[in-house]
Design brief:
Length: 156
């Protein structure tokens, strides 16, 4: 039997079309991408998390000459949140990037390991996390839940 799954997501031509709180989130993600330590890939990624108390937690990718020892911006931010505010729910994750390794019109799309970490963050708080992905030419995709980016996830 063949079955289908489908997801719903929103597209915006420019992140300035988002609401004021989300514009702030995008700007903060771009700001923190400047702190990326990415001498090997020269791909500078920023992640901002909107927490339930409306505070913002930031992370950037941190690379290492032993390549697998580095970590993506998303997991830097999520693990910082888990370490310091384990009981504070995450409302939104915004990801932006600058660099040559993907075309300017492509959205930064989280890697599989980051999606796996995101879905566990979502499951442990029993509340969906919205995902905002921004391309280098400022276009935006918004997903309502991590599950949309990781169907059939390995879950408890
Ligand atoms: N990277 C991220 O930080 N987030 C992503 O979603 C994709 C990739 C980082 C990892 C590495 O430092 C560089 O970008 C190139 O892959």
């Amino acid at each position: 039997m063949i079955k289908n799954i489908s997801i719903r997501y929103s597209e915006f031509a420019h992140w300035e079309e988002l609401g004021p709180d989300d514009i702030e989130l995008v700007k903060k993600a771009f700001e923190v991408s400047e702190n990326a330590y990415a001498p090997y890939s020269k791909f500078y990624v920023g992640t901002s998390l909107r927490m339930e108390d409306n505070s913002i937690i930031l992370g950037s990718n941190q690379e290492n000459i032993a390549y697998p020892s580095g970590l993506c911006a998303e997991r830097v931010a999520l693990f910082y949140a888990g370490s310091n505010y384990p009981n504070l729910k995450i409302k939104k994750i915004c990801v932006v990037a600058k660099g040559e390794i993907i075309p300017k019109e492509n959205w930064i799309s989280p890697c599989g390991s980051c999606r796996q970490v995101m879905i566990e963050s979502q499951n442990r708080q029993y509340q969906p996390i919205e995902i905002i992905l921004v391309s280098q030419n400022s276009r935006v995709l918004v997903f309502q839940s991590v599950s949309d980016l990781l169907p059939f996830a390995f879950n408890q």
